[in-house]
């Protein structure tokens, strides 16, 4: 068997063939051959054939469950199953996720305890990063990220509270900034402002929408001075965001950098599968409001509930 250069010397046996290599830590990039070697190294050589038949690579290995080890890999012995899972958790804790973890989510989870890095890969695969983690709900942590341990979810939520910036900031005089596409969502944006004005909130909306450099600068400064960033999304609202100077793109990027509480309000809008710039990635991870005109008051109540004071 020919092995890639990502291996270093260490004796092991693989399907009757002597191999003198040790695996690297970039587990998400492991080919099937690396997984076979790993199973052999941890004493799971009896199951290598099933691993090979199921074509388990590094990606699948990091996501495999105890039930799948039993049903698909054939590890029916309960204690052996638990031992393999223990070794797998150790692997997850020592793995190098840098190739897919550009924001350092693994380091954030490890700041709680090193064992929390077992959740890094499923969270990354769910689209979570350091920026969007602060908007995760308990239900999303459990059902989307696969964190079944309630105590661990509580610890992660405590961490979220610490990094979320959900405290009143005297340097942010505006309760909300409303971002919108003038050609498609101006009606919804205006309605949102009126509803919030009536309830006593100090809301900014850019009615001018000028491309003048000074005006754009002033608008982005206002985003920084707002506790909440409400983006009104209707059909085709995100058209044009791929352009570097698109105003919505700049407003969203500024809101993220300023740690504003971002709330999308959706009216006849569905999240597109089309490519979007990094500035707008994970917008669908934030708590959003589906606007229903017949239930306007209920929608506003929900919006207010999501807003920080």
Automatic annotation (TrEMBL):
GO biological process per UniProt: negative regulation of MyD88-independent toll-like receptor signaling pathway; response to axon injury; signal transduction
Cited PROSITE patterns: SAM_DOMAIN, TIR
MF term (GO), any: NAD+ nucleosidase activity
Domain TIR: 172-309
Keyword entries, A-Z: Cytoplasm, Hydrolase, Repeat
A single cellular component GO annotation: cytoplasm
Domain of life: Eukaryota
Domain spans labelled SAM: 30-94
Signal peptide bounds: none
Location (main, coarse): cytoplasm
InterPro entries: SAM (IPR001660), SAM/pointed_sf (IPR013761), SARM1 (IPR039184), TIR_dom (IPR000157), Toll_tir_struct_dom_sf (IPR035897)
Keyword Glycoprotein: no
Localization (cell): Cytoplasm
Stated name of the protein: Sterile alpha and TIR motif-containing protein 1
Lineage of producing organism: Eukaryota, Metazoa, Ecdysozoa, Arthropoda, Hexapoda
